[in-house]
Amino acid sequence: MRSSRRSPLLVAVLLCALPLLAARPVEGMDGDGGSGAALGPQVARLYEEAATATRQYEEGRRAAEAQRARAMDYERLLDGQRQKIDAMHEDLGRIARAQYRDGGGLPLTARMLLADDPEGLMRGHRAVARANLAVDRAIGRNLRAEARFAAAEAKAQAAWQVLEKRNTDLVELKKKIENRLEAARSRLEGQADSSVAAGACPGAVRLDQQNVGVGASWVAPVETYELSASFGSGGSRWANRHTGQDFAVPIGTPVRSVGTGRVLKVSCGGAFGIQLVVQHADGYYTQYAHLAAVAVDQGDRVEAGQWIGQSGSTGNSTGPHLHFEVRVTPQTGSALDPVPWLSQRGVPLP
């Protein structure tokens, strides 16, 4: 029953979160798409809001399933109580029938006068009276227990229905956020492609750093991803072999610096599209390519986990992803396999 006392708090927290999400404005998102310069932060903010809505939906779904299970438990308990009460009613009926067969229709005084053993008859009468009283008390206890269980079941059902309604609202909210996110991503990628085609790199658009302070010395370059083309793989898209590890992520996904360092280079054009290179203190360099936007300038110092750009599909790319390289020099041609390199630093890539 302890879990049922915790559930109202969870319901309240979830219900409070929905108005906050729904009320958050998307700055600059007017009818024509808003200011181009603010697209990067808008996409990053919508990315976070979509992730928050997804997380809250999952929490609400788990809570609803727990409430549903509790309601079913209550129903099973009620069934058990009903069976016990039915059995007691049957026992009481047997006692009444036995009394009738044994002369229960005569007054007790007449039966005592006619009995061969009046004292035995009295003892039997008292035993039957005590049995009847015990049965009546047991029936009363079980009826009260049934009422309590029914009330608890009703509360569990009501909480479950609230959570189901909450989940329905979250699904609608999540869909709206994702639709806006998709539209903003499309505009961001179009803006990036135009910059690359013109050979003019867009300036840094700073992002709110929600993920700074992860507490680790090294992190993966994106938080949620699927690995695609690996280091050394062949293909028609590359002159020789693939020089990095690709992370399949949607356009606008925040890209993180894998470790502390300094931004050595920000450039656009060519096979890598919009890219940046970070120099780390241990003599290695990391490259982040095919970006849609950058959030740092050349010379900036960055921390592990800091958002330095947003993924895209600029340059020689067949779809949205992050191309990530680890190099021993700033130039191409000095790359090594990023997967074991990150694993040695406590960042295994599944």
Write up this protein.
- This protein is α+β, with helices and mostly antiparallel strands.
- The protein has 5 helices and 10 strands.
- It has helices spanning 2-23, 39-104, 108-114, 118-198, 338-344, and strands at 226-227, 245-248, 254-256, 261-267, 274-280, 285-294, 301-302, 307-311, 322-327, 335-336.
- Strands 1, 2, 3, 4, 5, 6, 7, 8, 9 and 10 form a 10-stranded antiparallel β-sheet that branches.
- Strand 5 and strand 6 form a beta hairpin.
- Helix 3 (108-114) packs across helix 4 (118-198).
- The longest helix is centred in the middle third of the chain and has 81 residues, at 118-198.
Give a quick rundown of the structure.
52% of the residues lie in helices and 14% in strands.
Helix content: 40-55%
Note the main sheet: 10 strands, antiparallel
H/E topology pattern: HHHHEEEEEEEEEEH
- CA radius of gyration is 36 Å
Q: Report mean pLDDT, rounded to a whole number.
A: 76
| Alpha plus pi helix count | 5
Please give the number of β-strands.
10
Shape, please? Answer: elongated
CA-to-CA gap between the ends? Answer: 39 Å
* Uncertain segments: 1-36
Oligomer: single chain
Structural class: alpha+beta
Q: What portion of the residues fall into strands of 2 or more residues?
A: 5-15%
